[in-house]
Design goal:
This protein is α+β, with helices and mostly antiparallel strands. It folds into two domains: 274 residues, Endonuclease/exonuclease/phosphatase (Deoxyribonuclease I, Chain A, 4-Layer Sandwich); 140 residues, Vitelline Membrane Outer Layer Protein I, subunit A (Aligned Prism), CATH 2.100.10. Helices cover 17% and strands 34% of the residues. The chain contains eight helices and 25 strands. The strands form five sheets. Strands 3-4-2-1-12-11 form a six-stranded mixed β-sheet. It has a six-stranded mixed β-sheet with strand order 5-6-7-8-10-9. Strands 13, 14, 15, 24 and 25 form a five-stranded antiparallel β-sheet that branches. A hairpin with a 2-residue loop joins β20 and β21. α4 packs parallel to α5. The longest helix is centred in the middle third of the chain and has 21 residues. The radius of gyration is 23 Å and the shape is elongated. The chain binds 2-acetamido-2-deoxy-beta-D-glucopyranose (2 copies). The site of one 2-acetamido-2-deoxy-beta-D-glucopyranose has 6 residues, from loops. This is Jacalin-type lectin domain-containing protein.
Length: 502
Amino acid sequence: MCSPGLLTSENAAPVPQLFFSPALFVTKLFAAARSQSQARRFPRAAGPRDGIYSIRCCACTDIIRTSKNHPTVSHPRVQAASAASGTFDVLSMNVAGLPEILNGNGESGDKTTNTAIIGQDMAKFAYDVIHVQEDFNYHATLYANDNHTFRTATSGGVPFGSGLNTLSNFDWLDFTRIKWATCSDASENDCLTPKGFTFMRLRIDEGVYIDFYNLHADAGTEAGDETARAANLQQVADYIDVWSTGNAVLVFGDTNARYTRADDGIRVFSTQNGLTDAWVQDAEGGVFPAIGADALLCPDGVPTNISCEVVDKVLFRGNNFITLSNTGFFYDTARFLSSDLATLSDHNPVRVDFTWTLATTLRQSDLQGGPHGTWFNDLPSLPASPKAHVLTLRGGARLDSVAISLTSGASFTHGGTGGTAVSLTLAAGEAVLSGTLCWGQFNGDMRNFYALFTTSAARTLTAGVMTSSCATMTAPTGFGVVGFFGQDGDEMDQLGFIYAKQ
Ligand SMILES: *[C@@H]1O[C@H](CO)[C@@H](O)[C@H](O)[C@H]1NC(C)=O
Ligand SMILES: *[C@@H]1O[C@H](CO)[C@@H](O)[C@H](O)[C@H]1NC(C)=O
């Protein structure tokens, strides 16, 4: 993975602090519209091969163009075993960072001072992953007072940025900002600034990835707001179906939605994506509050319990490999108070503690390559007690495809049909124990150029051409390769191995 040191300069980059004169504001809006239309060429395209950016690492930036010019880092290495289980906590906090002149939020104290305290408390309580919303014009203050190792670079103040950032103790892959397709100014100025959601694939441990989504949905309760908000949440749900298929997922942020409101559309994460809401689980015994019931509003100040509902939600699911369990839902408001015990934001900060536990019969490798093409994951399709039967690779100047068929008859193929095919049929009791991948740049995209697999009988299968950036990934003792996960198009953009106990 990349060196966190690389990121410090991005984190420390000066953030434009905007002043609001009406004339300047209009000028800025036009500039923002232009910069948006340029920026929009960079989000990951759904089709194979048309993403133009390439990120091997790295936490902390969506300034992805720069990575094209980075020399690839040569770090051949053998992977370590991951732990079998662990814990982490997450915090969702709307930090109320709109310029004071636009939105005072009714909090006492000036926003720069309040934001400094928020940053200090984020450091002090060492939350593992924090999603902030409305991190607009006091962003530099927030980061100057916080100390998390991995942090996203800001997308700017109002009206340039989305206000969404992540501060994390874990590194990640594939950070992407996505703008809402729908916004409404029916009440509040949701179209003023390009709000939306973010995606990143957080690496908790070797081969242990969880997809993290931050969001800030449309506010207000006019008809136009309700339509926009439901469309926003639907957009995230649809994205999860494509980009997180087969994966463990955490969605946390400011949904601006309540379960008691009929038209907010917040139930889509349960019905479409199979996510569990941590507050519904802990405060409501797993039963959604009734639609049309009175809003379960929190009192002003510090809530004394969690029976009130806030619009800041934490939703999660595990997968066949990772069991995620909510071990506690908290309003952490009392941790974020001024010296005279006033709240610092008009939102209660929400914390959820999690444990993660890996299936005893499965392990995964790290992902290698670049985040282009389409996400795939063989995990949901694996039979019980999978065993590899035939391994097939296609390669030429680069790695075109990988395929594996299992003794159960199941088979998985990823990538394209170019290059020359080579196959290895495993003997009874023979397993694929390790794989070396090498990656490099092609047409400005990072992808895999080479694969070498070695079996328990010391037989090998190779395809493609080596580069100076390679990693060898070895199954834990008693495990063998039975499937893959990653991203493909007509070649192998990003690839990881699924190991099963043999
Ligand atoms: C950040 O600071 C807190 C103390 O405020 C400390 O406990 C924590 O270990 C620090 N974290 C990092 C990543 O340096
Ligand atoms: C939770 O707090 C509210 C005040 O916000 C109070 O009315 C209610 O009785 C409390 N519930 C419990 C179970 O303590």
